[in-house]
């Protein structure tokens, strides 16, 4: 029943209609039951839940960021790639949605079965090709006349870019993408049956002044073994319980120890007027507030950490640490 509240006059009119026979209570019940029936199209079977689609979107948002970094470095120009939508549709609908002549690369992703297709809009592909060849990123759509050299350059560029899917999928499974086919006509794709459900991730792509779409088509057969890994529960459990390998921890600690930080031994401070500061000349002496026999303060990133005494080590100026400074800012 609807949550709408009836007025007193509407209630009176309804009761009057029921009492005079103008309306039948059984007809009202049947009408309510009829509204609960939903039309289901078996050609557009929804085999992924909304939760799983959201997980796929998050995964490929990370993939889009990795592609942005990769193509920016390779093409040395402004690149922006972001996920526009994630949909589950029949494979034949995906084939109909792409241009008649476009750039299609298909990849095996062992140990998973099936292949993933990456469709790149010709405007984007030719802009990339022009930049790789030393041009300004001009896009000229002549996809039906690609030379073998152009195909090789494009396939190498997209194959190295697709390798970043391994990192994007690391939280759900380990894969080893391998380029197996390069096509320009979607009608030649016989990857799965026409009614097979596929997930299509569409990514807005900007290369310099050229824009277009990059689409990933992932069949259900590829994702079927790892569907349980797409749940929010799995992600939360995986992130909370996953521990770093000892070797990985050792590498992180080693890199942190090699980080460079500024260390300053402060001999003393003083205050002077702006007039005195402006009139300073070579040979003038500034008297500090600190006694020469007092220990100096050693600061890291501007934070007092140690007290020390000044001296020499060989022919170089040095300080000897005496003790930690307690109670200072950010003191651990």
From TrEMBL:
InterPro entries: CheC-like_sf, Flag_FliM, FliN-like_C, SpoA-like_sf
Source organism, top-level taxon: Bacteria
Keywords of this entry: Bacterial flagellum, Cell membrane, Cell projection, Chemotaxis, Cilium, Flagellar rotation, Flagellum, Membrane
Claim: Ribonucleoprotein is one of the keywords in the record: no
Stretches assigned to coiled coil: none
Topological type in the membrane: Peripheral membrane protein
Keyword RNA-binding attached: no
Pfam families xref list: FliM, FliMN_C
Flagellar motor switch protein FliN-like C-terminal domain segment(s): 255-323
Subcellular compartments: Bacterial flagellum basal body; Cell membrane
Entry similarity comment: Belongs to the FliM family.
Protein name: Flagellar motor switch protein FliM
Protein's organism: Heyndrickxia vini
